Amino acid sequence: MPNVIEVENVSKRFNTYENRDTGLFSSFRRKKKVVRALDGVSFSIKRGEIVALLGRNGSGKSTMIKTITGILHPDSGKVSVLGLDPWRDRQKIAMDIGVVFGATHPQLYWNLPPIDTFEYVRDVYGVSQKDYNERLKFFIELLDISKVYKKQTRQLSLGERMKCEMVAALLHFPKFVVMDEPTIGVDLPARMGIKKAVRELRKRYGMTFLITTHVVDDISMADRIVMLEKGKKIFDGKPDRLKSTFSRYIILEVRFIDGESGKGFETRGRVISSEPGHVKLGILPSMLKEEWLRKLITSDKVADYRINEPGLSSILARFYSSRDHRSKSADVDADE
Length: 336
Prior knowledge:
Layout: E1 3-19, E2 30-46, E3 50-54, H1 61-68, E4 76-81, H2 90-94, E5 97-101, H3 114-125, H4 129-143, H5 158-170, E6 176-180, H6 188-205, E7 208-212, E8 224-229, E9 232-237, H7 239-246, E10 250-256, E11 270-275, E12 278-283, H8 291-297, E13 302-308, H9 312-326, E14 332-335
Parallel strand pairs: 3-7, 3-8, 5-6, 6-7
Antiparallel strand pairs: 1-2, 1-4, 2-14, 8-9, 10-12, 10-13, 11-12
């Protein structure tokens, strides 16, 4: 299966400036900072893949997206989208790319109904009336927007607007779709509808998706995760491998009967939370076979217990926390 995206050893730097002091002449005593937004990043995306691009603010996600879509040119390295250079061939690639932004960058016109924007998109991309009618019917059913797409955009809820934003971005049936924080602030039914639409478009039309998100639930629709940290790629693999790579522990939760406590039990693992009658620990998987655990869960002091794998949200939180303790700034300072 051919790769839709090829990113090879891409680097991008930006010059920024910080004032040394305050006061009238502070702007004349500035410190120059060269920020490595991307630092030798490489990955590829196959046709029909759904890839989640993760990372904290400042990790390089936005710069990576702008490089892939041809807005920025890398300082070094190579980017190929559908076999073309996104910087040199922006007009050609634009016909095969769709971009869905979050609520902060709307495509819909505020005082017009979404159907007017859909008509405008049809004209811009040269979609035939027959194809437009078929595709619009498909999206109306898929995203359940039959009661909202003819209302003024300003009358719609955020979830309804985001569904219509998705239609406007995909009516021309692009081969590759970028979704940048598409579900922030969106209610659960709308989020589920968007996730269902992504999977169906991949299944039926072979669309390829690159999704940036801080919403952990969105990661469940991804086949693969690419994670950036301070401009470097630090992980590339399936969500299950992320768990096994960054989580050494499983979670043991024990509730004791009234009047009993878990005193001393906390020494068996890493305490996640502890309160009277209830303890949650991170323990090594090997401990499941140890005698102390068998005695504990069969004790008449224990009312209930549960053993779970940690969720992605807790794994990412612990991972970022550990990186904060170990990392050093990659910025290069110079005087001006």
